[in-house]
Amino acid sequence: MRLIIRDDKPAVGGFTANYIAKRINEFQPTNDHPRFVLGLPTGSSPLPVYHKLIDLHNRGKVSFKHVITFNMDEYVGIPKSHPESYHSFMFDNFFSKVDIEPHNAHILDGEAENLVEECARYEEKIEAVGGIDLFLGGIGEDGHIAFNEPGSSLASRTRMKTLAYDTIVANARFFDNDIAKVPKMALTVGIATVMDAREVIIVITGKHKAPALAKSIEEGVNHMWTVSAIQQHPWAMVVADEDATLELRVGTVRYFKSIESVQAQQELKYGNAALRPKQRSVHASSPRF
Amino acid sequence: MKVTKFTNCVCLQRDGSLAHADVYVDTHTGKIISGQDFFYAAQELPSQIIDCAGDILSPGLIDVQINGAYGFDFSLWPPLGTENLSKHEQTDAYLAGLDRVAGKIVETGTTSFLPTIITQQQDLYREIIPLLGPRSQANSAHILGYHAEGPFIAGSRKGAHAPPFLLTAPRGLSSIEGVYDSAATQLRTPDSGVKLLTLAPDVDGIAGAIAPLAQLPGVVVSIGHSDADVDLASKCVDDGARFITHLFNAMPQLHHRDPGVIGLLGNQPKRPFYGLIVDGVHVHPNAVRLAYDAHPSGCILVTDAMPLMDPHLGDGIHDWRDGRRLFKQGARLYLENTTTLAGSASTLDECVRNLKSFTNSRCFVDTQRQFRCRLRRGFGDSR
Which residues does the annotation say bind Zn(2+) (chain B) (predicted)? Predict the structure, then answer.
């Protein structure tokens, strides 16, 4: 795992967006995997990434014409048109500002008649396009990724989840501060769905996320900090701002800062593709947790 | 479905604020649609994207008092230069003139208007009015119907109207119908084109005709060119009058014991809408503020524009009608060699900017949004 540390949120967004754009542009299509497949999050941490991706798109540096996206999650119990739905978030903050084809943008349907089937179909769709090349994620203060709240199985797949009380309270600010209006359920990809991606990038910014970052990368793999599963991923990267590193040990920070330049030199010499593991991930080829 | 997306624009929100947002319009129906539904449900992309480069994107303006523009006079029959032609050719020339104005005026932001017919020789109404039904051409402003200003107006408040043609209504409603009705169109018929009638209730026979007139579908009765006292004016409102024609102009000034027609801005319980010529000339900015502050939700901007309204036309003496000439100075128009204002040469978008600057703290938005909603309510714009 790599940890990239930048000064602030915009710098984290800039680094991550540039990295994603580079990966899209480098992508070599094949017959059974003709499109770059990108996993996407919602929330405040990824917003600077979207801003920068839109900027790169506007300057002609990247196109999403041939990119397929899968979002992490969506609420159950509010319509897609609700301003707080993740459909709305993605349309407002990203899809409407780039050249992605609507049929290539996938988001779980929280209004589906049969939610179990909807989740199963989602996994099938991901497989059908050759799996996810790069899954971008953010985390909550408790280290959850997507709606995989503390205690979620690290082997989980796309499914229905009941939201943790803390998450409902935190979300109330988006629903007139009325807990009754906050959706209590969501559809979400599982930890294993994320970890199946060929590459995982987690953006973590702000002082309030500092304990989660420390727990997730300095301690063991633990379902109470679900994002800690990236420790088992062969090609994962955390991009954090200085504030988010406040609870890390000085040694940890120094180590990751020092290897960043070494890594960059290696990439220059061999190319990113050559350094990446050839297999999709540990999960795709070996028994799950 | 073909959709045009307006992007990089600042547009009106439901709550009246301005916000950066994209607007998606169904190219076929002209209706604003949800871009998000279009994306996720129809799974399509806009067929056209228009970059507004940061400009304000606003609903089209509606002008309910406009006498002509771009050299064409709605009230002139037969049209200029067609005096020796057949009736058929005159009709064609008139409609071509209307269409020319409708096509050009969109450059000023006006997308609908009521051609306004000022006091005419009585016989001519039946020539002109049948031509003023609702009319829409491609890429042009909509003609919603007509506004008849006169001949039932007070001689003492005639303004630029021709005194010999002013009439009274001794037989009430039937006198009025006698002027506006023709074989082709009648006030009583829905969709006859009549939208707004400016009447002076102090003219003999008019006051009693307001209640039955206001009942007619599509007719909005407006009080104007009148010396009515406040009691008479508020009785008209009780009877169904819903509008005041160019507030402050062609009516007695506000007197605290008898505030007259202007006093309707303080009327209880119902206050009418009022047309306001905010060209900076007809009504002093302070008077604009007085009216607007008193009754902001009733304010409807009108141009009262003359045929000389043409953003591309220079200042100087220009021919008008009946051999009379007008002196144009910017947005000001005077009868030649007088200081009598003869309508305006302002465009409606200038009036909107003026109102915004005169009333300072008010947002553009407020005037725009309410203007549109109000007119929809008031004048049955069904689009």
Answer: 149, 225, 246
Reported as type and span, the H/E element at residue A238 is: strand A236-241
Average pLDDT over residues B187-207: 92
**What size, in residues, is chain A?**
289
Q: Which two tokens stand for residue A1?
A: 């795992």
In angstroms, the first-to-last Cα distance of chain B is: 19
φ, ψ of residue B26 in degrees (nearest 5): -65, 115
According to DSSP H, which parts of chain A are helical?
A: 9-26, 47-58, 86-93, 115-128, 165-171, 191-195, 210-218, 250-270, 272-275, 282-285
How many Å is the Cα radius of gyration of chain A? 18
Q: How many A-B residue pairs are in contact by the CB < 8 A criterion?
A: 29
Residues of A in contact with B33 (CB under 8 A): none
The C-alpha atoms of residue B251 and residue B261 are separated, in whole angstroms, by 7
What residues of chain A, 105 to 134, have a C-beta less than 8 Å from chain B? 105, 107
User: What confidence score (pLDDT) does residue B228 get?
Assistant: 97
**Structural domains of chain B ordered from first start:** 3-57 (2.30.40.10), 61-379 (3.20.20.140)
Q: Which residue of A has its CA nearest to B37?
A: A81
> B102 versus A181: which is more confidently predicted?
B102
For chain A, list the domains and their CATH numbers.
2-285 (3.40.50.1360)
Percent above pLDDT 90 for chain B:
69
End-to-end Cα spacing for chain A: 19
CA distance A8 to chain B (A): 26
Chain A residues with CB under 8 Å of B39 CB are 91, 95-96, 102, 105
Q: Touching check for A102 and chain B: CB below 8 Å?
A: yes
How confident is residue A285, by pLDDT bands cut at 50, 70 and 90? Answer: very low
